[in-house]
Each structure stands twice: as C-alpha cells, then as structure tokens.
Amino acid sequence: MNVLAAASSSDLTPGRLWSLIAAALGLAGVVAGGLALRRGRGAVVALAGGAASVIIGGWVVAAAKGGPGTGYGIVGGYVDLVIGAVALVLGGLSTARSRGFVGGRR
Q1: Residue 7's closest CA among 53, 69, 86?
Q2: What is the pTM of this model?
C-alpha cells in the first residue's frame, strides 16, 4: 500500500526550495531591470535573472507530481514563470533602449 502524505505548510521541500531560489533570482532580475531602465546599467543582470527564474520555474512545474498544497512547489513555479518573464521584458526593454531601438534619451 502506497500512501502519500501531503506536506505540511511549514515544511521546506526540495520543490519549494527551488521555487524560492528561482523567485529570488527573478526578483533580483526585476529590480535590476527597473534600475536599468532608469540608469542604463544592469540589463544583463535582468536578463540573466529572468532567464534563470523561467528555467527553474518551468523545471519545478514540469517535475511536480501534484497540485497546490502537495509540497512540490508548483504554485511557486508558476509565480517564478511570471516574475522571470517580467524580468526578461524589463531587461529586453533596457537593452533595446540603450541601443536606440525604443524611445531613448538620445
């Protein structure tokens, strides 16, 4: 008999840990992208953080064997996909702005 016990809400499972790591990378990318739009520096950090967040978040979602509340970190994985996409957009806009493709300060 194989009985799967749901993880407690306070347990830090491997899926939740990877989701937290990806969220931290994604948030760093969003902050760097916002600063890059204002100051013109940090677009590479935003792109790298966003890409890492999307990759890790996608991996967590693909590896999850259960839904929300099972301890696989699937909710965090979906959040990571969104945060990473925002960081990628901000980094891309900053890069395009610095090269003169979007309304820059030239």
Answers
A1: 69
A2: 0.82
